[in-house]
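Hi everyone, sorry if this is the wrong subforum. Our group has a chain we'd like a structural model of before ordering constructs, and none of us has done structure prediction before. Sequence below.
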Amino acid sequence: MNTSVSTTARLLGAGLRALLVLTVICGVLYPLAVTGIAQALFHDKANGSEIKDKSGQVVGSSLIGQTYHLPKKDPNDAEEAARPDLKWFQPRPSNGLGTNSVNTQYSLILSGATNRSGDNGAVGGQCTKNAEDGTLCAQVIAAKEAVIADNSTATYTVKPADVPADAVTSSGSGLDPDISPAYAKLQIHRVAEKNGLDVKAVEKLVADHTEGRTLGFIGEPRVNVLELNTALKALTGP
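Answer:
Right subforum, don't worry. Here is the predicted structure as C-alpha cells:
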C-alpha cells in the first residue's frame, strides 16, 4: 500500500515538474525567442507590413488590397453601387468578396472568389455583349467598358486591346494588393489629369514603384497600389 502511494506521488511530482518545465520553455521562452528574432530581423513583416504616409500615420498593409471609392450619395442605401474615385490608381476588381452577415455590428471585409469558370456566360466559346447578367462574361465586359471610359482623357484614348486581364478580373482572394505594370500605365493619363499633374511625373511615380520578379524568376512584375497611392498623395500635397 505504501509502495503504491509513494509511486503515485512520485509520478505526480514528475508530471508536475514536466508540466512546469514545458510551460516555461514552450509557453514563455520559445515565444519570446521567436518574437525577438522576428522583431530584430524582420521588423516590418512581423508587424504586418504596415505602410505609413509622410506624416507617419499607418494607412494600411502592403499585403492587403484596398478600394478607392467615392462616398455614397446615401450612406444608408445598401444597394447603391460603389463609384471609383478616379483621382487614385484603382486596384483589381473585387467581385468575389462576400457581404458581412456574421457580425453586422462591424464593417468586416470578407475574402473570397466568384468560383465561376472562364467560360461562364460565354456564347459559342466567346464572351459577347449578349452574355447573361451575373455571369463572369457579363462582369468582364462591363468592367472592360468601364476601364476604357474611365481612363480615356482628352489627350489619351484607351484601346480595348490595351486593357490587361487584371483590370477586369478579381483575384482568388479579392484582396490582391498588386496590379500589373500594364494596368498601372493605363491609368497614368487619367490620374495626371484628375490631380493636375504632369504625365511625366506620374510615369516616373509608376516606374519607381514597379517591382520585378522575386529573385528574378518567381512571379510577375507588379505594382503595389497602396504604396503607389501613398506616394501620389505625397506628390499632390494635402
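For your construct planning: Strands lie at 50-52, 58-61, 178-179, 210-211, 222-224. The longest strand covers residues 58-61.
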